[in-house]
Design a protein that fits this description.
- This protein has helices at 2-16, 46-57, 90-103, 127-149, 173-194, 232-244, 256-265, 268-278, 280-283; strands spanning 37-41, 61-66, 80-84, 109-112, 154-160, 200-206.
- It has 286 residues and is an alpha/beta fold.
- The chain has a single domain, classed as Rossmann fold.
- Helix 5 (173-194) links the parallel strand 5 and strand 6.
- The longest helix has 23 residues, at 127-149.
- The two termini are 35 Å apart.
Length: 286
């Protein structure tokens, strides 16, 4: 059918291109400029590392918080610094943030990217495993936002969530719950900030499908047409471009991520249909 072909074309185009010309400039002066300081959690690998590379290309000063150092060259200009930190630990976050505050007068951009998962049925989860996923993916991000907001009234916050926070497949209950919590926290905080007349803080939510990184390398995409993997470098460019232009419109990739909201509004039978079409439950089989 013609409609099927058009839909397939849209899915393909969305997976290949980020359509930067559709992004409008919402700020008179960009917060992202040479010398801006950006903090990226989980910046040593995957999407986080690609975001770091994009920020460095914009001549920003970048701070990485991660449990392992990045496999990247540290320049003599000290544009890139690494702090060992487990963002799943509230105590470590506080101690590390104090060190960062002594080394850097201000942080203009906060990017909560760190994330982990545990792929197994909920009946096989240990309490420690559930807590770790929630602490890293959700509570760690909340803690950093609290610390950052206490010292800033201008800047940019980016939260890397997931479409799985809206519709969660089997065996990813803790991950879906953590990302769903982050989405709700982001939306609530964003509304609060918008009500402040003196607010100069922008927030960007990233809600995507499977990204081609090590985190989900054991999960095979059941439909490369309907749910293609997202290349981290393409997504990173999209995120940094949105920050640069002050654009706060939620980033949803690939195309099907936009359809999830439609299916959710149609209630359970249609959600089940979406899961069946995407085969997401089959994709997470162990």
């Amino acid at each position: 059918m013609l409609t099927d072909k058009i839909f397939s074309l849209l899915v393909y185009l969305e997976s290949k291109f980020s359509f930067p010309f559709l992004l409008k400039n919402d700020l008179e002066e960009s917060i992202l400029r040479p010398g801006s300081v950006a903090l990226v959690t989980g910046g040593s690998s995957g999407l986080g590392l690609e975001i770091v590379k994009q920020l460095l290309s914009k001549r920003c000063t970048v701070i990485i918080l991660d449990i392992y150092p990045p496999n990247i060259q540290f320049g003599a200009d000290k544009a890139l610094t690494y702090y060992k930190c487990d963002v799943g630990s509230q105590e470590e976050i506080e101690k590390t943030y104090k060190r960062i505050s002594k080394d850097h007068a201000s942080i203009h951009i906060l990017i909560n990217n760190a994330g982990i998962t545990c792929l197994k049925p909920i009946t096989e989860f240990s309490k420690e495993e559930v807590n770790k996923v929630i602490n890293v993916n959700y509570l760690g991000a909340c803690k950093l936002m609290h610390l950052w907001l206490s010292a800033n009234n201008e800047g940019f916050i980016v939260n890397i969530a997931s479409v799985l926070g809206l519709i969660t497949p089997a065996r990813l209950a803790a991950y879906g719950a953590s990302k769903g919590g982050l989405i709700s926290f982001h939306q609530s905080l964003n509304l609060l900030l918008k009500k402040r007349t003196t607010n100069k803080i922008k927030m960007l939510l990233v809600c995507t499908g499977k990204i081609r990184t090590k985190m989900f390398q054991s999960v095979d995409s059941p439909s490369t047409l309907f749910a293609p993997d997202i290349k981290p470098d393409i997504l990173a460019r999209r995120i940094v471009k949105s920050i640069e232009r002050g654009n706060c419109q939620t980033i949803r990739m690939p195309f099907y991520a936009n359809l999830v909201l439609v299916f959710l509004s149609l209630q359970r039978p249609y959600i089940s249909l979406l899961k069946k079409i995407s085969k997401m439950d089959e994709a997470t089989k162990i």
